[in-house]
Amino acid sequence: MQAHASPPLSPAQSKDETAPAPDKDRFAKASAWSETQHAEPRNIAPVALVTGAGKRIGRAIALGLARARWDVVVHYQHSLDDAQKTADEVRALGQRAWTISADLSVPAEVDGLFQQALKHAQSLDAVINNASRFAWDGPRDVNAEGLVGHWMPNLVAPVLLTQALFAHCSAAKPSKQGVVINLLDQKLHNPNPDFFSYTLSKAALWQATDLMARDFAPHLRVLAVSPGITMLSGDQSEAGFAQAHQQTPLGRSSEPSDIVQAIIYLLQARAITGVNLLVDGGQHLQASARDVMFTTSDRLESESSL
After folding, report:
1. Which residues are registered as beta bridge partners of 97?
2. Which bin fits 148, alpha (ψ -120 to 50), beta or left (φ > 0)?
3. Rounded to 5 degrees, what are φ and ψ at 291?
4. Entry pTM
5. Could you give the CA distance from residue 232 to residue 136 in angstroms, rounded to a whole number?
6. CA angle 163, 168, 174 (to 5 degrees)
7. Are the beta carbons of 225 and 263 closer than 8 angstroms?
8. Which long-range contacts (CB under 8 A, 24 or more apart) does 238-247 make?
9. Quick one: fold of 44-304?
10. In the chain, which end has fewer C-beta atoms inside a 10 angstrom radius, N or C?
11. What is the pLDDT of residue 57?
12. pLDDT reported for residue 253
């Protein structure tokens, strides 16, 4: 496991805003307020750990958080160059960033990821569980390797990271409220047998989101965001993706920017916990016997020629 840290930013200098007071009591209160402002550095940004933040949606989330004045711990497994580029872009936006490598299928590395993030950032306020495995299988050919291979990064790692953030927030003096946002999938509301192991792991993570939201309150808000088809995946063609992306009631599915907006909203929505926000253009409202990537004309033509 490797970690790369950026130097901390200097806190902004605060100004003494104490105004003259007509009596000693008011002057004492104003002086105490001024001393408090000087004693606690201003502009201390909250810190979020984003898994799988070197590429694709994870990268968009990291940069969106930076624009919203969050510092970001950029997790990656193999894509060091991409992770460092994401971190550099976060720093260019005026925020701190660190890159940490960890294999989310190994529980010891998951724990190490959280501890290294905490060591470098000194505090953590949110975890965005974005990274996941997405490989095709179906009920007829699923095997133990595929099930375990999906469940470790897609379920076990997010649960362990949520548990770790709860321990950190509840032990803080004074205690604080953290936020966990798990990325799920609209297909939980519109199920089909494709990507069987993946779907089971996301269904279990949704149930875990609900249960942890109940048990970890008030120290932690635990939420979920379910995108629709958002980016090109696997062997999908550009034309096939474009067609699939339009097959929703709203005429468009989610884009990375839509997911970022949802995450920023949930981070700020202090009265919301235990919910799954669907960001999919209404894709979940349309029943389908196959995953949407298999329903486009190029796929159907290819299969008919076999």
Report:
1. 72
2. alpha
3. -60, 145
4. 0.80
5. 15
6. 140
7. yes
8. 239/296, 239/298, 240/293, 240/296, 240/297, 240/298, 240/299, 241/293, 243/296, 243/297, 243/298, 244/292, 244/293, 244/295, 244/296, 247/283, 247/286, 247/292, 247/295, 247/296
9. Rossmann fold (3.40.50)
10. C
11. 96
12. 73
HSE of 262, CA atoms in CB hemisphere, 13 A: 25
First to last CA, the chain: 46
CA distance 60 to 192: 28
Task: Quote the tokens at residue 199.
Answer: 């779907």
Residues 6 or more apart whose Cβ sits within 8 Å of residue 74: 50, 53, 54, 62, 83, 86, 87, 90, 97, 98, 99, 100
Strand order in the sheet with 71-76: 3-5, 97-101, 71-76, 47-50, 126-129, 178-183, 220-227, 276-279
